[in-house]
Write a structure and sequence with these properties.
The chain is of the alpha+beta class. 47% of the residues lie in helices and 17% in strands. The protein contains 3 helices and 5 strands; from the N terminus they run H-E-E-E-E-E-H-H. Strands 1-2-3-4-5 form a 5-stranded antiparallel sheet, with helices on one face. Helix 2 runs antiparallel to helix 3. The longest helix is centred in the middle third of the chain and has 45 residues. It is rod-shaped and about 75 Å long.
C-alpha cells in the first residue's frame, strides 16, 4: 500500500513528532501507525499498543497526545526529585555553615533556592496535567541552536 503526502499532512498542527512514511504505515521515534484493516489504524509505541482508531487523523492526534503525556510524566519525576534534592541541600548547608557561623553560606544558598523554586514551579505546572503549559521544557533534540533562540 502506498501513502500519499496528503495522508502524511494529516498530522496535527504543532506536532512534536516528526512523522515519516514507512513501508506499511507511518513511523516517528518509538511510535508507529499501521493500517490493520478498513478504518482500523493501530498506534504502537515500541511493543505496546496505544490504541486502535477509525481515522488516520485521530491516530496521529492520539500518538502526539501520548508522547506529550510521557514527556509530562518524565518532567514531573525529574522536577520532583530536583526539588527534594534542593531542600536536602538547603538543610545540609544550614548544618555545615550554620554551626561555624560563616557569613558566606548565603552565597551557597542562592543557587539552591533558585533551583528549588524553579523545580517546584515546574513540578506544580506538570502536576496540573496541562500538556501545553509554558513550563514544560522542549525535549533536547527539538531545541533550536543557541544562536537562533534570540531571533523571532
Amino acid at each position: 500500500m502506498t501513502f500519499t503526502p496528503e495522508q502524511l499532512a494529516m498530522q496535527p498542527p504543532g506536532a512534536i513528532l516528526d512523522w515519516w512514511i514507512f513501508d506499511d504505515g507511518f513511523i516517528a521515534d518509538d511510535y508507529r501507525i499501521v493500517l490493520l484493516g478498513p478504518a482500523q489504524w493501530e498506534v504502537r509505541r515500541s511493543a505496546d499498543v496505544v490504541g486502535i482508531y477509525r481515522s488516520l487523523k485521530t491516530a496521529f492526534v492520539s500518538a502526539e497526545h501520548h508522547h506529550r503525556e510521557s514527556i509530562r510524566q518524565g518532567l514531573l519525576r525529574r522536577n520532583g526529585i530536583a526539588f527534594v534534592l534542593a531542600v536536602i541541600a538547603w538543610f545540609a548547608v544550614d548544618v555545615v555553615f550554620g554551626v561555624t557561623g560563616a557569613g558566606l553560606w548565603v552565597l551557597v544558598l542562592f543557587p539552591i533556592v533558585f533551583i528549588g523554586m524553579r523545580s517546584l514551579a515546574r513540578f506544580l505546572a506538570s502536576l496540573s496535567g496541562n500538556l501545553h503549559n509554558p513550563y514544560i521544557s522542549v525535549p533536547v533534540k527539538l531545541r533550536r541552536p543557541w544562536w537562533q533562540r534570540w531571533r523571532r
